[in-house]
Design a protein that fits this description.
mainly beta; OB fold (Dihydrolipoamide Acetyltransferase, E2P)
């Protein structure tokens, strides 16, 4: 018995896989309606970025004012963009994927079109 009392390790059988690692179910946001996945190629200054989209186009994207302080976007990040209705060469960035979500997207095979960029 230690100074802090007896503790036992609680393990849940459903969370342990065959190889001993914990399987944590993760939920990843998928593109909705007009949203397209994109790969940030270059920052252009201010809140503008050049994004290579999954449909093959390279768009000049901006971060809307409501997201400016919540997104810290760097080159090689994966984002969701929503093209403008009037101009298909421009878009708004509506979501930034964190690193662990990018791994999940890669496992699902949704980032295959960006393999040459990584």
């Amino acid at each position: 018995m230690s100074d802090f009392g007896d503790f036992e390790e609680i393990k849940d059988e459903q969370q342990i896989e065959e190889n001993g690692e914990q399987a944590v179910p993760t939920r990843v946001r998928m593109p909705r309606d007009k949203e397209i996945m994109g790969f940030v190629m270059q920052r252009l200054g201010g809140n503008r970025m050049e994004v290579k989209c999954s449909d093959g186009k390279t768009r000049n994207c901006r971060v809307p004012g409501r997201f400016k302080r919540s997104f810290w976007i760097r080159p090689k990040d994966i984002v969701l963009v929503e093209p403008w209705e009037g101009d298909n060469e421009k878009a708004d960035i509506v979501f930034h994927y964190p690193k662990n979500a990018v791994g999940q997207l890669r496992k699902k095979g949704l980032l295959n079109q960006f393999n040459d960029s990584f």
